[in-house]
Amino acid sequence: MTAPRFGYGTNGFGCHRLPDALxxxxxLGYEGVALTLDHGxxxxxxxxxxxxxAAVADxxxxxxxxxxxxxxxxxxxxxxxxxxxxxxxDERERRLDFLRxxxxxxxxxxxxxxxxxxxxxxxxxxxxxxxxxxxDGCARLVESATVPLGFEPEPGMLVETVADWxxxxxxxxxxxxxxxxxxxxxxxxxxxxxxxxxxIAAGExxxxxxxxxxxxxxHEHLEFGTGEIDFPPVLAALAxxxxxxxxxxxxPRHSHAAPDVAARSIDHLRAAWEKAAVDLxxxxxxxxxx
Length: 290
Description:
Blueprint: E1 5-9, H1 18-27, E2 32-36, H2 49-63, E3 66-70, H3 92-109, E4 114-116, H4 127-144, E5 149-151, H5 162-171, E6 178-183, H6 184-190, H7 195-202, E7 206-211, E8 213-215, E9 218-222, H8 231-240, E10 246-249, H9 258-280, H10 283-289
Parallel strand pairs: 1-2, 1-10, 2-3, 3-4, 4-5, 5-6, 6-7, 7-10
Antiparallel strand pairs: 8-9
Helix pairs in contact: 1-2, 3-4, 7-8, 8-9
Domain Xylose isomerase-like TIM barrel: 23-271
Keywords: Isomerase
Protein name: Xylose isomerase
């Protein structure tokens, strides 16, 4: 039985320089990082990008950190409008260009996946047009990407549930490079099934997992123990599903106390895994070990 590989998201270290954030994350014992491309964190539009990517790749290797690339920066493309433009907007080519840059950076870093989402449908864009734009943008990204893509259902966005993701995947023709990013908190927030069941059902499609606590019907990423999720069964479900990718903490509003929050988070996850491992242990094997 293989233990999960826990990581931490750099969007929860927004007050740190990226190299400092990576060193803190590694120093706390995490095995990976979910790296959100943003101002000051491998800005894909900054001069000298190739040199910086090479330096970060070297640092990740030195720190023995695996990496996934996240693309959810709030104001990277538009200083006035959060997350805009998306693949649904009239200016969607800017988002597609950004996602292609992210995929190229991911390839250079040796990333296990590059994660992205649909976005919120603009009021001026009819639902049918928004869906056509999303399918077209995803298809074009799949054609050019050389790393696995993890599409994340996000509450309030055009694709907000795992069922929506399946519909999108079917529309794309089920390409092998188009996987699923699953946020454990989102399962509690709006998926119809219990969180462990949601994990098991999604298991074969997972290329990236984000983890955080959450309450039913409220899209707010919470520290472990402050929401409604029981984590040992969730980690047991990930193990049962055969998932071997990163399980990265997603707390984007906690940068003000990042080192302390990250330390508490890995302690909680380790304790949850210890309990899950006991529950998963084969009784026959346990009897033999006595």
